[in-house]
Automatic annotation (TrEMBL):
Belongs to the bacterial histone-like protein family. SUPFAM superfamilies: IHF-like DNA-binding proteins. GO terms for molecular function: DNA binding; structural constituent of chromatin. This is HU family DNA-binding protein. Gene3D superfamilies: IHF-like DNA-binding proteins (4.10.520.10). One of its GO terms (biological process) is chromosome condensation. It holds the Pfam family Bac_DNA_binding. InterPro entries: Hist_DNA-bd (IPR000119), IHF-like_DNA-bd_dom_sf (IPR010992).
Length: 85
């Protein structure tokens, strides 16, 4: 937040409010099953996993794993290239 405030020439409290609002918008979009694309940075999306059968690693017993959702982040090409030079 301090770096945002400095870079945007605004007070720290204004930068914090702005960051919090951006975060709220991203979270609300994901809750509504929307994809969030940030140009030059990456894409956030909700991935759904089906229920499946797994194994308890200690006992080897077969267990049922419930369906679930997770947030996936796919970095933009420019971001990937920055770290893979």
């Amino acid at each position: 937040v301090a770096k945002i405030a400095t870079a945007c020439n605004m007070g720290k409290s204004d930068a914090e409010k702005t960051f919090d609002k951006i975060q709220d918008i991203i979270l609300d979009s994901l809750k509504n099953d929307e994809t969030v694309k940030i140009a030059g940075f990456g894409t956030y999306k909700v991935a759904k996993r089906k229920a499946r059968t797994g194994r308890n690693p200690r006992t080897g017993e077969s267990i049922q794993i419930a369906a679930s959702q997770k947030v996936k982040f796919l970095p933009a090409k420019a971001l990937k290239e920055m770290f893979n030079k």
